[in-house]
Write a structure and sequence with these properties.
Layout lengths: L1 H5 L15 H27 L3 H14 L1 H37 L9 E7 L7 H16 L4 E7 L10 E3 L1 E2 L10 E7 L3 H5 L3 E4 L4 H4 L5 E5 H7 L9 E3 L7 E7 L14 E5 L13 E8 L3 H15 L7
Parallel strand pairs: 5-10, 7-9
Antiparallel strand pairs: 1-11, 2-11, 3-5, 4-8, 6-9, 7-10, 8-9
Length: 317
């Protein structure tokens, strides 16, 4: 359960709180053992009381007069063997698929990561007020014991809902068939919180967040598709003709952004505080990402307390 709940493989509410019930486990084991003993004991007792002479006589009579019974018994045995082989093959395939799934490199580390979805009501929060609250919340959570990194994002990897945008490359004609990528709005510490490696250049810093929109981070797939064999650092893109040019400051390692069995798609990362032109996103609805060294439930309780101090009416998912 720890392996499953640590990742985002299953979109199930409150999955992190699921635990094995030892009482149910003990009952299941006892029932399985009792069933095996019950169905195995009676044939054994019957066999132990059997008379060898009568059995031989009965066997002789059966050989003479019950060919139909023998055929039916053989057919039943063959059917049981066939079903057993089907179950065995299915189990082997399932185990093989599970092993392959566990061996897939997701590109990020879901271990010891807590995520919480926050939705700020539009009636009470302007975009600027939402940005202020998210910044204050990150500062508070960052000061909690056991927290290694904290960030916010508009969507997590492998989410069902994704957003993308077309973009123009400086000194090149527009080509919407190639220049389309997934978009992600994040805070500066997002990559450290998610355990995503840096392939080239640098990640966002707090200084970037305090400056006018000027930078973007792309993943390896986008860099390879748009600038094959060329260093993408310093290259510029923009999302619309009236949008400012953004310089590529870093290349992040590819992640499985659409599932463990789906090829990685081109992706662009923007600072959520930049509110970049050409991207539609509800900046009042963000996910808090916390990398921790302590029990996740402790962090959840502490984060809820910090959020309650800022706004006791906010829902958390």
């Amino acid at each position: 359960m720890k392996i499953i709940s640590a990742g985002d493989y299953l979109d199930v509410a409150q999955l992190g709180g699921v635990r094995l019930d030892l009482r149910v486990l003990a009952f299941t084991a006892t029932a399985s053992l009792a069933t095996g003993l019950f169905f195995g004991l009676f044939p054994a007792l019957k066999a132990s009381r059997a008379n060898v002479s009568d059995a031989l006589k009965s066997s002789g009579r059966e050989k003479v007069g019950s060919r139909h019974q023998t055929r039916a018994r053989s057919l039943l045995v063959m059917t049981e063997i066939a079903f057993s082989l089907v179950l065995l093959a299915g189990s082997g395939l399932m185990i093989g698929s599970l092993v392959k799934l566990l061996d897939v490199n997701l590109g990020f580390n879901p271990q010891n990561v807590v995520t919480m979805r926050l939705s700020l009501p539009e009636a009470r929060y302007s975009l600027r007020q939402a940005e202020t609250l998210f910044r204050q919340l990150q500062e508070r959570v960052r000061s909690l014991p056991g927290v290694h990194a904290v960030a916010i994002t508009n969507q997590l990897p492998m989410s069902e809902v994704t957003a993308n945008a077309s973009f123009n490359v400086e000194n090149r004609p527009a080509n919407t068939n190639i220049n389309v990528a997934d978009t992600q709005l994040i805070s500066p510490d997002y990559f450290r919180a998610m355990g995503i490696s840096l392939f080239r250049g640098r990640f966002f810093t707090d200084n970037d967040a305090n400056l006018p929109p000027a930078s973007v981070i792309v993943n390896q797939t986008l860099a390879r598709n748009v600038w094959p064999g060329v260093d993408p650092i310093g290259k510029r893109i923009r999302l619309r003709a009236d949008a400012p040019w953004l310089s590529v400051v870093g290349v992040a390692a590819d992640i499985k952004n659409h599932g463990s069995n789906v090829a990685t798609k081109p992706e662009m990362y923007f600072l959520h505080s930049d509110q970049p032109f050409g991207i539609w996103a509800d900046l009042r609805s963000m996910t808090l990402v916390v990398r921790t060294a302590v029990e996740p439930q402790q962090i959840v309780t502490a984060v809820r307390g910090q959020l309650r101090d800022l706004d006791p009416e906010l829902p958390v998912f």
